[in-house]
Specification:
Elements: E1 40-44, H1 60-67, E2 89-94, H2 102-117, E3 122-126, H3 133-144, E4 150-152, H4 172-178, E5 188-190
Parallel strand pairs: 1-2, 1-3, 4-5
Length: 197
């Protein structure tokens, strides 16, 4: 989907504001609260309560935004493109979700993603443990039905339960398969080196 109404708002130039200053958004893009004029919205999901080993994915959105300050907006000759020149991309901020109740957080993520997808063509999520795949697939399914899925991971994330819990980082694709959220004949797991979890 191309923004035909006007030229997309570009990230703040490092020639105008030093890269260490300015908005704390992805690539220093403008923070646009009315995302209906956007083609793509970036959505932070600072959630890692579903992980069993190493927490920290909750800080992913913040770290990605910080690292993205170094992205430049100039023309890229090898790819014959200029990032952000064709589509309006905006940072929609972070979802506020319950860090102490995984099932409630899954619902909050699904609701927020569904609401955002109802306003923009596409979303790109930042951060979160693998638990977030399920509510995101549910949100996409609401508008598009089952989709082809390409899952890059060392594990399948298809356990039935983990320590008795149905919603964890090791179970999202089991739930998604049960709910028929993706097309099993057109989907693939890439990089698998471990067991179901």
């Amino acid at each position: 989907m191309k923004n035909e109404e006007k030229s997309p708002v570009q990230p703040v130039s490092g020639k105008i504001v030093p890269r260490y200053a300015g908005p704390s958004t992805f690539a220093r893009l403008p923070e646009i609260r009315d995302v209906t004029s956007c083609d793509i919205a970036l959505l932070g999901i600072p959630f890692d309560s579903g992980t069993s080993y190493r927490p920290g994915a909750r800080f992913g959105p913040q770290a990605i935004r910080q690292a993205s300050r170094h992205l430049r907006t100039q023309y890229h000759p090898a790819y014959d493109t200029e990032p952000f020149a064709e589509l309006q991309v905006a940072d929609a901020g972070d979802i506020a979700c319950n860090p102490f109740n995984i099932e409630e957080a899954v619902g909050e993520i699904q609701t927020a993603a569904t609401d955002l997808l109802g306003k923009v063509g596409s979303i790109i999520s930042l951060g979160g443990d693998h638990t977030i795949a399920l509510p995101l697939l549910r949100a996409v399914n609401h508008f598009h039905g089952p989709v082809a899925l390409v899952h890059f991971d060392a594990h399948l994330d298809t356990w039935d339960t983990y320590f008795g819990a149905p919603y964890t980082h090791g179970t999202p694709f089991r739930r998604a398969a049960e709910e028929k959220l993706f097309l099993d004949h057109a989907s693939i797991h890439v990089g698998i080196r471990g067991p179901l979890y």
